[in-house]
Design a protein that fits this description.
Shape: globular
Number of helices: 10
Largest sheet: 4 strands, mixed
Number of strands: 18
């Protein structure tokens, strides 16, 4: 059985477990248990994933991953199976002007308490969150939905306030989505924003078995009727994982030790030093990727976006200049690499009047661009290297933060123009190269 919801799993222990790990959690067979790194819960009694109250972090204790469900999933691996129907039996159907979306639901899916899942649950989820501002998906539903109806138990029709060909993405999981609420539970609970939902009724393949009142661990057990979930319907064989434990595993160094002792199977967050040591020394570890960065690529990796409604980004020449200036690979890997080591650069004569030198550290190959003077001044990029840089970076330091590849440093004041002060760089001698400005 696959677990597509563990989308950011970094490491999985695969070797046979030693004897001392068998009694790690009393009463649970270790060879049927998956132990995942979670986080301490501020309010361990809170299991309401639809309301951001109670100080809980319900998406970090297994609740979201193991008990919730929605209409569709996106497989981060892509390929022919990238789109996965979950509670819906087929992709959404829109009308001609995208003001109406119809969804057909699967039959035979049940909540863990034996109540059948129907279109009533979907209608209740949307309407309840519209009626209660402050719930997790209240704002996007309020903005988009004019009305919602369910002509039969397996059909839901959304009437939208304006055309939206991507309304279905609210119910499509890449790392989060609008989870469906159990109507038969919440309609008796009173205020849905104050309801703890403890114990939670599950729409997934697992149910809550027990949890630590101090918020250090949560144990989930496979449902007896796990086949009556969307995961169960997709499974080709019975799952081998009968228990899933989310537990706080200490700092990154402690996680390495716990994994080596086979008391931790899945690590979601690891310092680079521990990651390298683990991959080098442990034979019981497998990573998503064989080489760096080892973990599954995060869909929220750093990116560069331009607001084309604002100057100077409404100018295509400016966008081209910035696009060619930025090393997009360095941006994408910014979460994994430390800052470049900065070295003083000797003074060179200024570049030509209408040429901007854009140093790209680590490559040594600058790019120049001829763009309008007004756009050049608005970008505040220096047209020549600094005379006598005074800064340098500590050698050997490794920190996870995005790399800024422009030849200018952040301004001294918070929120100031990030390109308002020149900085030294480690580039070789600039070589001008003109850029085509044709769109």
């Amino acid at each position: 059985m696959k677990f597509p919801r563990f989308a950011v799993i970094a490491l999985l222990s695969l070797a046979a477990l030693p004897a001392y790990a068998q009694d790690f959690i009393a009463g649970i067979p270790r060879n049927e248990t998956l132990i995942i790194q979670g986080t301490p819960q501020q309010n361990a009694d809170w299991f309401n994933v639809w309301a951001p109250g109670g100080g809980g972090a319900a998406n970090l204790n297994g609740l979201q991953q193991l008990t919730t469900d929605t209409l569709w999933f996106i497989n981060p691996e892509g390929g022919p199976d990238a789109w996965q129907n979950a509670l819906a039996m087929e992709p959404p159907a829109y009308n001609a002007d995208f003001t109406q979306m119809t969804v057909k639901l699967r039959k035979g899916i049940y909540w863990s308490d034996g109540v059948e899942f129907t279109s009533d649950d979907v209608v209740y989820t949307v309407q309840t969150q519209i009626d209660h501002p402050g719930m997790s998906w209240s704002a996007p539903f309020t903005v988009n939905v004019a009305s919602i109806e369910n002509p039969d138990p397996q059909t839901v029709v959304f009437h939208l306030k304006k055309p939206n060909s991507r309304f279905h993405t609210l119910f499509t999981v890449r790392w989060n989505a609008a989870w469906i609420m159990p109507k038969h539970v919440f309609e008796k609970a009173g205020d849905p924003l104050a309801f703890k939902n403890n114990p939670p009724v599950s729409l997934g393949a697992y149910v809550l078995q027990s949890y630590d009142k101090g918020g250090n661990w949560t144990i989930w057990k496979l449902r007896d009727d796990w086949q009556r979930s969307s995961i169960g319907m997709a499974a080709k064989e019975p799952p081998q994982v009968k228990y899933v434990v989310y537990r706080a595993a200490g700092n990154p160094e402690a996680r390495v030790i716990e994994q080596r002792n086979h008391n931790l199977d899945v690590i979601n967050d690891m310092a680079p030093e521990g990651m390298f040591a683990m991959m080098r020394d442990s034979k019981s570890v497998a990573s998503w990727l064989k080489g760096f960065p080892f973990a599954h690529p995060d869909p929220t990796l750093p990116s560069v976006l331009f607001n084309t409604k604002k100057a100077p980004y409404d100018n295509k020449d400016v966008r081209w200049a910035l696009a060619l200036m930025i090393d997009i690979r360095a941006v994408a890997l910014g979460s994994y690499r430390g800052p470049p080591i900065l070295r003083p650069l000797p003074h060179r004569r200024p570049a030509r009047r209408r040429t901007i030198i854009m140093h790209r550290c680590r490559t040594g190959s600058p790019i120049s661009s001829s763009i309008p003077a007004a756009a050049r001044s608005s970008l505040m990029i220096p047209t020549s290297p600094p005379r006598s840089p005074q800064w340098s970076a500590a050698s050997g330091a490794t920190r996870f933060r995005p790399i800024r590849n422009s030849c200018s440093a952040p301004s001294a004041s918070a929120g100031g123009n990030r390109m308002s002060r020149p900085r030294p760089n480690c580039c070789r001698k600039p070589v001008s190269r003109r850029m085509a400005s044709n769109g």
